[in-house]
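Q: Second attempt. The first request was missing the SMILES, so the protein and pyridoxal-5'-phosphate are both included now.
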Amino acid sequence: MQSNNKCHKIVFVEYKLSSMKNFEVSDKGYYGKFGGAYVPEMLYPNVEELRENYLHIITTSDFKEEFNSLLKDYVGRPTPLYFAKRLSSHFQTNIYLKREDLCHTGAHKVNNTIGQILLAKRLGKKKIIAETGAGQHGVATATVCALMGMDCTIFMGEIDIHRQAPNVQRMKMLGATVTPAMSGSRTLKDATNEAIRYWINNPSDTHYIIGSAIGPHPYPDMVTRFQSVISEEIKWQLKEKTGSENPDYVMACIGGGSNAAGTFYHYLDQESVKIIGAEAAGKGVDSGFSAATLKLGSIGVIHSCKTLLMQTADGQITEPHSISAGLDYPGIGPLHAHLYDTKRGTFYSITDDEAMQAGLMLSRVEGIIPAIETSHAIAALEYLHAKPHETVVISLSGRGDKDLATYQSYFNL
Ligand SMILES: *Cc1c(COP(=O)(O)O)cnc(C)c1O
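A: Got both inputs this time. The predicted holo structure:
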């Protein structure tokens, strides 16, 4: 009887797994063929400490209470789900904007930095480090370090420090130390190398906050869980507005993939909801100046994660290009590589020009100036051909204040 029962149970579990596509991360940190933790040996103890503890810590009621209360009173959640009437009539469908641009600091990134700093505190860490390219993740990290009274060092390429001066000033205002990365091309990848070097040398008292759903396991899963509050809210908000928690489409732009992962998360196994991503095609997918990782990429390892990435035949990572700093990344989070590979998701490559036009359009029809990253998701509406009775939810990942100079010079305003 006993063994019969057991047998039945195992068969049931296997049946469930094979009858639905599973988009949860595996124990070893994989989404299908993508993910894992390809870390240098000296980094292994740090990543292993995280892996052993993160799930336990973030599911305790003490953690959840503090996280939810900060999301509510500090970040300003729930962010509105806004029915964009004029945008909807332009595209002849029903479009809802999930207003992550209204989060404190102006984008979704703070959802993740709050989660990670609460985790770091519970692991007994005293110092926070992070890498940043455009400075958005650096600002979100410096913000939560000020909030928690923790020491903060942001590594940033020396070239980026000059290009992104306003964000450097914000980080300094918030009390962070901004350390220039002087090696290589003096941009994001060099800043990442410096952060990793620092972490190896300071393993016991330091936590490294990665800014997207990338990096070694458990980072992609951890960041996805913190950002999943986006789709958790969309479900009840949409139900309130339309009577159904499921739209026909959920859409988001993808750099590393954190706002997209959060927007898709609670819909991954709901096959009636189509998943749509927008990646950056720069000057065009085949122009040589692009960040269209899914179209151009092949499997390899970037930032300790096996995923699709842009590389030469001998495995050198290709320099990406996008007008939006937040999408200017040669890889993509492993969850999205898996959604692409299994065809669960549909991904459009949006050029700089298409994104800029969409950003101007949203500003003029809804009075909302989006971040240029977000404009890529808006531009993808042109390709979607959603029907008049259908419902589309788009993640409005961030606001465009940081991009005004770029919009201004592009449109000669
Ligand atoms: C950083 C950023 C992105 C891209 O990052 P993901 O991890 O792919 O979400 C998108 N939008 C805004 C506003 C950003 O700041």
